[in-house]
Amino acid sequence: MLGRVSSFLQRYGIPTFHRCQLHDSLFNVHPSISEALAENKPVVALESTIITHGMPYPQNLSTAQEVEAIVRAHGATPATVGVLEGRVHVGLTQEQLHFLSCSDASLKVSRRDLPYAISKGLSGGTTVSGTMIAAHRAKIPVFVTGGIGGVHRDGEISMDISADLTELGRMPIAVVSAGVKSILDIGRTLEFLETQGVCVATFGKSKDFPAFFSPQSGFTAPYHVADAEEAAALIESMLSLGLQSGLLVAVPIPEEYAAAGQQIEEAIQTAVAEASAKGVRGRDVTPFILQRVNELTQGKSLQANMALIRNNAKVGSQIACALSEQQRRKRSVASPRLKEQKTRVHPEAVVIGGINVDFIAKGKTQKLLFGQTNPGSVCQSFGGVGRNIADCLSRLGERPLFISAVGADSHGDAVLSYCKHMNTSGVAKIREQRTATYCAVITESGELSLGLGDMDIHQRIMAQYVSEFEKQLSSARLVCLDGNIPVSTIDYVCSLAMEHAIPVWYEPTDADKACKPFLSHSWKALTYTSPNLAELRTMNQTLGLPTPAELPGDPQEVLRCAAALSRPLLEHLQCVVVTLGPTGVLVCGEHEDGTVCLRPGKRRRQGKLCALHYPAMALNPGDIVNVSGAGDSLAAGLMAGILQGGNTDDSVRLGLMAAQLSLASPHPIAPSLSAGMVNLEEVRTQDWPRPTLWWIEEMDQ
Questions:
Q1: Given 3.20.20.140, 1.10.3720.10, 3.40.1190.20, 3.10.450.50, which CATH number is that of 335-698?
Q2: Given 47, 68, 167, 535, which residue is catalytic?
Q3: 414 closest CA partner among 198, 232, 172
Q4: Residue 592 among the catalytic residues
Q5: CA 245 – CA 170 distance, rounded (Å)
Q6: Containing H/E element for 3?
Q7: Percent of the chain scored above 70 by pLDDT?
């Protein structure tokens, strides 16, 4: 395989590089964690400052081991996070746990400390904020700790506010803790969390917010969840919304240890006063107070501390398991074929294309005036043609492998977090590259007025990288390429498709990129393509065929032009799907029993060709929010219909239903789209207008 790939790369003059260049080497995820996440099993992230700074040796080691054992006993996989010799590790071996527990030179690693620890090759325990960063990078949604940091007493003067709070405001992680440490200003901490947009809920029947050693702090949480199932549903809602803020689940200390709470609180007051008198400041305050409180209570505070940590581990594991089960049921409802898909070694579909962070600026007037400020609104969403298609396929019950590239930056982190429901194992993270961004300015009716894109990273989706997934490509039932990827990558995939008889769908992206497969014989390996009229004209022009100087505006002339421009491509392609916006869709291909044959297979060179016109679904102009993902939704719906064995009418209508939801959503692919809502059974229950047979022609015998 490598020899054939190398010769292909040399033929097209593509420089070779090692895969390690595309992946961040600063984060190491233990194989057991990677395997659990890949199989959608529950995983619980755990911090390590309890090992390095929370307790003396060997109590720290035995506590860490006990907490991991509790997580396993309740059906989840523990993922203790730590920094070892300049690398962040998600999941520690027993030897690594022992190393951290015995080290006298360990750092306390928060967000601010990560760059220094890594640059110097140091080791340390991760705080709540440091652990959240690693958990988010590893795509672990549930994190258990003892108590989070907060606003310190007199924080309005000292401005001593824990980084844990700001991290909760920017990381979509559910943190399970015993509230905030009782040495802090709990009221101001709750106010700060509200400002950061963090959803706070107590665990149990009461909204009384716990104060670490006490089940009541005198403050009330805005919400509460009765059990693990309710907590999991809350987390799933947060993740589904794509919010970039976290969730705090506050678990009260077990009642049998709460009785000592008053004695501990009195000791805390004494310790706080001593810290102030001795001039203890900053990060030294918390360990000083905890140590002094332990002395004043003759070890009762440490016993209570360990009890609440064990309880949090139990509750957090139950929540992680409930979340995993809810997500499993959701996937099962979305795809009746899930069990069959899980047993497959390789995905049925592979999508190779662009992934973008989109900024959509929508005017409040139909006509936008350039050179001045127009009234409107701006929102962020996640797009890219390849990403949109893979997203839509995933929501329609498929599990495509998505191959793409993002930068090692905040945009890349955000879009991968949003795409957790997809198989993004083929997305490379490239250092010193920016994640693609796109800014669209649209009118009040949703029509594009101006678009600006920073898409240079798409050129890094090179054949050398894509060839690493040759086994998946060679066994796929369908491969989709978008026009963002390099010509050489398209040529490589098409040559592989010819060798293994793989159906290939080409989504041209825009008129300028529509030509890419047609610059060589690669286009003859395509099975399907889904251009609009301008893109279809470019394809014909690239082949040196006559095309109209101007595209028609009259709907009847549009259909006539689309059929004429599709005809030459059908010498080799099985089907051309021409997207015509409000006019609908023209499906062109081989005629079979009054319709177009969409089934991939050996292409015959005789019989009849035809074109069927499907009108667009009716939408009020006011219901159209944006049009950026409608074509991608249509194409993905058609692909899903083909993969699920639907006939031509059902597959096209599946695509039309997905496109309708996309038009009414601010996101390119509607988050509400699911296989439970849009499926072949639902399509067949609706009363659809019959497509019009627009053109039919005998092929040469």
A1: 3.40.1190.20
A2: 47
A3: 172
A4: no
A5: 4
A6: helix 2-11
A7: 90
Query: Which tokens belong to 163?
Result: 């980084």
Nearest to 177 by CA among 133, 221, 136: 221
* Residue position matching structure tokens 């009762």: 300
The CATH code of domain 24-140 reads 3.40.1790.10
Q: Which residues pair with 479 in a beta bridge?
A: 350, 504
Q: Is 181 a catalytic residue?
A: yes
Overall CATH class of domain 146-334: alpha beta
Contact in structure between 207 and 215 (CB atoms under 8 Å): no
Q: How far apart are CA 50 and CA 94, in angstroms?
A: 16
Q: Show me where the domains of the chain are located.
A: 24-140, 146-334, 335-698
CA distance between the termini of the chain: 39
**Which of 68, 108, 167, 181 is labelled catalytic?**
181
CA atoms of 152 and 680, how far apart (whole Å): 57
Q: Is the dihedral of CA 341, 345, 349, 350 positive or negative?
A: positive
Residues pairing with 223 in the sheet: 201
The larger pLDDT score, comparing residue 217 to residue 201, is at 201
Answer for the pair 140, 147: CB distance below 8 angstroms, yes or no: no
Show the beta-strand stretches assigned E in 532-581. Answer: 575-579
Per the model's pLDDT, the better-predicted residue between 141 and 623 turns out to be 141
Contact by Cβ (8 Å): 260, 209: no
> What is the structure's pLDDT at 10?
45
Q: What is the pLDDT of residues 597-644, one digit of tens each?
A: 998 765 555 678 999 999 988 767 667 776 778 999 999 999 999 999
pLDDT tens-digit profile of 318-351? 999 999 999 888 765 544 443 444 334 467 899 9
335-698 shares the fold of 146-334:
no
| Two structure tokens written together for 10 | 């040399």
Q: Is the pLDDT of residue 98 over 60?
A: yes
Q: What is the mean pLDDT of residues 344-360?
A: 84
Element (H, E) at 378: strand 376-383
Please give the average per-residue pLDDT across 566-572, as a whole number.
94
pLDDT at 45: 97
